[in-house]
Amino acid sequence: MSSDSKESKAIQSLKVPKMIPEEKSPCRPADATRSKQGATKQKRLKDISYTKFIAESVSLIRYCTRFSTSPIQDNSESVLEIKKENLGNFWIRLQAVYDAIVESDESDLPENFKSSAYSKYENCLDQYEETRAMISDQLKLIKAIEPTPQTRVELPQVQNQEASSGIHLKVPAWDTEIFHGGYEQWPSFRDMFTAVYINHPKLSNAQKLHHLRYKTKGQAGVLVKQFALNDENFNYAWEALKARYENERILVDKQVTILMNLPKIQKETSEEFIKLQSIVSNCLSVLATKNIPTDNWDPILVNICTSALPEKSLLLWEQSLSSRRKCLTWQQMNDFLTTQYEIAERVDKKMVRTKNVQHDLNRSFIRPQASNNNNLNRSFKRSHPNKINKRHANCVKEGTG
């Protein structure tokens, strides 16, 4: 036997036997369709769950915001009871949707949705608790005030209603801003709250404390909410605020820091000039209330104001001076800023009018070309109907010939 034949036999002996394919289990089209429909339905339910959570959380926050911004005098006892019930219903729906999200698998939800839903839930919980406390405080305030006995005096109908209710929650149309606990905000808040609420002739101390709760947030709000809602505690709460924020040293240091760090004017507009002027004037006013003499601060004030001016305004300032050898006063700088503000305001208005006129001109001159050609063709046909008919007849003859 030759070597070639031996080699071929060896190769044949090394051949791998063919694998017998396994029989695949038959898959019926109906089963595949049902599986696909089930997956689609499950995905739709998951999408609905987190979409509903977002919608419910937004609805709750809107309801709480609307209540906190509504006038107190619009809320009678019956209205407050209804609002309290509505708030509870909003929270029940939100809680149910959130529980469903917590129990679901992470893979069934969008990426990082559980963590974002948790932070959203915490925010809604804070809003819910704060609003519920507001409603309870208002209900307690209304129920605590008993009608005072009145002498038998004939009064107009409106006055009789007001006297019988014993509730005087209306305040002047102008109101105070919310105090968040800033030392620089305290003097203006204190004076305004005193004028609007403390000096109001028909507000009881409990009602004043209720308004004080509404008008304080942050650290100041926490301080006020420590006192229960009654007539005796208003004076304690007010004195606590005064003791906390009437810190003369901190207030003065704050004003000096503001003056020494004036923001530089980036663009020479009327808003920028009046902002710089207002900051300096407000700081001087606060310092004056603390009996800090600023009469001899002119060189300092002029120096820090010139540092905040841009190049062009600084040049105008130097040109406005009658003498460059004498010490300058704050009054000179104040007058210069007023002049620059007035000039910039007029220029800004003129530029706006010019832009509006130019825009109107552009709109009137720009017309589509096709539209103009169509208008010319229509006018030509109306003025020369015979020429159009003759041309049409000649074209027909040439075509038939």
TrEMBL record:
<dbReference type="Pfam" id="PF03564">
    <property type="entry name" value="DUF1759"/>
</dbReference>
<feature type="region of interest" description="Disordered">
    <location>
        <begin position="1"/>
        <end position="43"/>
    </location>
</feature>
<feature type="compositionally biased region" description="Polar residues">
    <location>
        <begin position="369"/>
        <end position="378"/>
    </location>
</feature>
<protein>
    <submittedName>
        <fullName>Uncharacterized protein LOC125775369</fullName>
    </submittedName>
</protein>
<feature type="compositionally biased region" description="Basic and acidic residues">
    <location>
        <begin position="20"/>
        <end position="34"/>
    </location>
</feature>
<feature type="region of interest" description="Disordered">
    <location>
        <begin position="368"/>
        <end position="401"/>
    </location>
</feature>
<feature type="compositionally biased region" description="Basic residues">
    <location>
        <begin position="379"/>
        <end position="394"/>
    </location>
</feature>
<dbReference type="InterPro" id="IPR005312">
    <property type="entry name" value="DUF1759"/>
</dbReference>
